[in-house]
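User: Predict structure, ligand 4'-phosphopantetheine.
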Amino acid sequence: MKRIKAVYPGSFDPPTNGHLDLIERGSKIFDELVVAVLRNLDKAPLFSVAERRNMLEAMTSGFDNVSVETFDGLTVEYAMTVGASAVLRGIRAISDYEYELQMALMNRKLQPSLETVFMMPAEKYSYISSRLVREVAQLGGNIDCLVPELVAQKLREKMDPALKFVDVERLERKASERKSRSRKKKS
Ligand code: PNS
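Assistant: Predicted complex:
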């Protein structure tokens, strides 16, 4: 019987609950699923490729048929190298569709034998993107429901300087409260 292997390519900076949901769905319909982290030298990522790979490996350790790899160059070439016959991509909302369609058609032009399969994550994850998670984390917001716990922990570690900044603000507030108290005492 033919075994179907798929590649799920992406930046995963950081991986989110939406990515995990898609990996779980993909692992149910494909015999093998390779989560492939793009090594993109153009972008300045928050997490290194190794960090993203480690997080994804930990997140997917419970799935027997899921592996995590890194790649550079064309997705279609990588997919052929690993013997995949499908590329998995997620569509959260209609706004994703145009870009995803363009990519899927370009990939088909480059490699007609490779199919792109779109899956939708659960609606509760439809607003989550890595870019927004990074932004919320950088501004000190709560990201606990957006990413797996181990990713939230890694984000907190990355944001440590920002957290210190928040502490500085608290200290400044306390200092100004002290000043106004001592002014009141004098008057
Ligand atoms: O998670 P992302 O950033 O939306 O993933 C985009 C990704 C990695 C799938 C796309 O940029 C990609 O396939 N890059 C590899 C280079 C390539 O094949 N480019 C042509 C795409 S049509």
